[in-house]
Amino acid sequence: MGSSGSARDAYGAQGKYAQAEALLSQALEIERRVSGPEHPATLNTLSGFASMYQRQSKYALAETYAAQALAGRRHALGSEHPDTMASAADLALAYLSQG
C-alpha cells in the first residue's frame, strides 16, 4: 500500500473517520476508473471501507462494502484465495455485529 493508504490507515486509527472516508472515496473513484472494479487496489479499498465502518459501529455500511469486496474477490481470485477468505470473514463480522 502506498503513502495514501498509510494516510487512510492513520486517520482511521486516530478516529478521524471523516478524513479517512474522504480519502477512501477519492481512491475508490480513481481505482474503479483507472484500474477497474476487480483490481486488487479497488478491492482493498472496498475492504478498507468495510473496516472503517465496522470500527464506527455502522454495521449495515460495513456489510455493503464487505459484500462488494467478497464478490469481486471471488470473481477475480476464486473462493479459496486468502484475500477472498479475509473478505468472507469481514462480511461474517458485519453480520454478527448486526445479530
Write up this protein.
The protein is mainly α. 81% of the residues lie in helices and 0% in strands. Helix 3 runs antiparallel to helix 4 (59-77), helix 3 (40-55) packs parallel to helix 5 and helix 4 (59-77) packs antiparallel against helix 5. The radius of gyration is 13 Å and the shape is flat.
Mean pLDDT equals 88
Count, helices: 5
Radius of gyration: 13 Å
SSE pattern = HHHHH
Class in CATH? Mainly Alpha
In CATH terms, the superfamily is: Tetratricopeptide repeat domain
As for the CATH topology, it is Serine Threonine Protein Phosphatase 5, Tetratricopeptide repeat
- What gap, in angstroms, lies between the N and C termini? 33 Å
Q: What is the SS-derived class?
A: mainly alpha
Secondary structure: number of strands: 0
The profile of the biggest β sheet is: none
- Beta-strand proportion: under 5%
The multimeric state of the shown protein is: single chain
Which word captures the global form?
A: flat
The percentage helix is: over 70%
How would you briefly describe this protein structure?
The protein is an all-alpha fold and 99 residues long.
Fill in the keyword field for this structure.
99 residues, mainly alpha
Write the layout of secondary structure elements.
Elements: H1 3-13, H2 17-34, H3 40-55, H4 59-77, H5 82-97
Helix pairs in contact: 1-2, 2-3, 3-4, 3-5, 4-5
